[in-house]
Amino acid sequence: MSAVAEKREAAVHAAIDLGASSGRVITGRVHDGVLRTEEAARFANTPVTVPVESGERLHWDVLSLYSGVRLGLDRAVRDHGPLASAGIDTWAVDYGLLDAEGALVGNPVHYRDSRTEGAPGRVFAHLDPAAMYAVNGLQVQPFNTVFQLAAAAGSAQLATARDLLLIPDLLGYWLTGERCAELTNASTTGLVDVRGRRWARPCLDLLNQGFGVPADALLPDLVEPGHTIGHLRGTGTPLVAVGSHDTASAVVAVPARTPRFAYISSGTWSLVGVELDRPVLSEQGREANFTNELGVDGTVRYLRNVTGLWLLQESLRTWRDQGREADLPDLLARAARLPKLSCVVDVDDPRFAPPGDMPARIAGFAAETGQRPPADEAEVVRCVVDSLALAYRRAVRQAAELSGQEAEVLHVVGGGSRNTLLCQLTADATGLPVISGPAEGTAVGNLLVQARAVGAISGGLPELRRVVADSFTTLTYEPEGERSPWDRAQRLLWPERNT
User: Fold this and answer.
1) Helix and strand element counts for the chain (H, E)
2) Is this prediction's pTM over 0.85?
3) For residue 458, how many other CB atoms are within 10 A of its CB?
């Protein structure tokens, strides 16, 4: 039998994996316990700013993304023949609205849009934050869906809407005609009861009674990962609900050989935490702004959402716009030769959240905290990677303290796993061995949940992770150097505690 014929006879699955800066369709097939992947298509995800009466609004170009998805699926079928399944994962919290005819009411608003400024305070005037956390267990981020809906209250689009679908569910609706809400992504909205794994009545009533937003009428039924949503139009290929929040899929792809692990899903955002079998809803966790997001197979991702490679991405964009040097591998190599911790910033400071001149903002933070601002591009890069490692250190230690689950090893998956300087600094800062890879962790976790759902593989999360460990090469970074410089840097940024 030819290699081509053998390839066509294997069950081929397609992961639709959309990140904040690009989308991709990755195919995969499992044979003898090993997953082999191949990229079918990659396309840009470029937000668009448009004028509105109140100023400007930042939108996702979801129609362009849908076009890229369709192109990727067509190429996957062209290369492999009929697909055994497909699944979608994307970023969280954002949504599209449909009218009574099922048509999209405007392009979805980007979570970095400024419309949610002040929204948490308006929501908490109606429902005490501690009472809300006791139900949804969610970290307070201004862009959480509950705050987006409060900010959109009274808008013409909400008045027209009959359905609200989160981004992966919206794409799934267009591909199959079926409407649902996959649970791992829905758990980031602030509208899910994290213990009952169902829509949270107190949060729905809050929006309805406090803001006139009929969320209970807009939201579809919840489904767990592994559920068959429907079939792709014209092909009969099942669309499987995977961990449609990209972090949920990424955590499936952690190649852990011990249950005592922490993880960082490293991309534009860094999700830093541990995997639990029940939520942690303590007041200490709420004050530390830790979140309980639901995962595959009944798990809970207890984590902190840390600003990630966004600072590097925006710095590179700024320098390119200014006609300056912006080759990241070269800048990382130069940064590696510089002294560590010469300048650090709190990467979660609100000033770093919107698009803009990130190097100037970093310099401003440094000056305000009595540090010498970075003098050139390499010093900015060194400041960012040192600051990320410091933020990871803090989050890993807090996760262990708050959950009672100590980690023996730290896994880094996603695009940031390729950043060797950042991985080594993370090991140095946390004092834990860091295992990096796979880089396409979200697509890998997506593919494995699909494959299990259609019977191509079996087992629970330990068995799926064994497939990952047997399929991909990882790198291990052992901690080096003393902890005391990291202790001093942490006290500079967060003097209230030194965990």
Assistant:
1) 20, 21
2) yes
3) 9
Q: Exposed, middle or buried by CB within 10 Å (0-12, 13-18, 19+), for 162?
A: middle
Alpha helices in 97-178 (DSSP H): 119-124, 129-136, 145-152, 156-160, 167-176
Cα distance between residue 142 and residue 119, in whole Å: 7
Q: What is the pLDDT along the chain (499 residues), one digit of tens a residue?
A: 333 333 445 699 999 999 988 999 999 999 999 999 999 999 999 999 999 988 999 999 999 999 999 999 999 999 999 999 999 999 999 999 999 999 999 999 999 999 999 999 999 999 999 999 999 999 999 999 999 999 999 999 999 999 999 999 999 999 999 999 999 999 999 999 999 999 999 999 999 999 999 999 999 999 999 999 999 999 999 999 999 999 999 999 999 998 999 999 999 999 999 999 999 999 999 999 999 999 999 999 999 999 999 999 999 999 999 999 789 999 999 999 999 999 999 999 999 999 999 999 999 999 999 999 999 999 999 999 999 999 999 999 999 999 999 999 999 999 999 999 999 999 999 999 999 999 999 999 999 999 999 999 999 999 999 999 999 999 999 999 999 999 999 999 999 754 4
Is residue 357 among the annotated active site residues?
Answer: no
The whole-angstrom separation of Cα 251 and Cα 255 is: 9
Go through the chain and tell me how many residues it has. Answer: 499
- CB neighbours of residue 105 within 10 Å: 18
- Measured between alpha carbons, how far is 361 from 351 in angstroms, rounded to an integer? 7
- Catalytic one of 163, 169, 246, 386: 246
Rounded Cα gap, residues 240 and 228, in angstroms: 4
Q: Tokens 């509105």 appear where?
A: 52
Distance CA 148, CA 117 (A): 10
Query: 29, 10 in Cβ contact below 8 A?
Result: yes
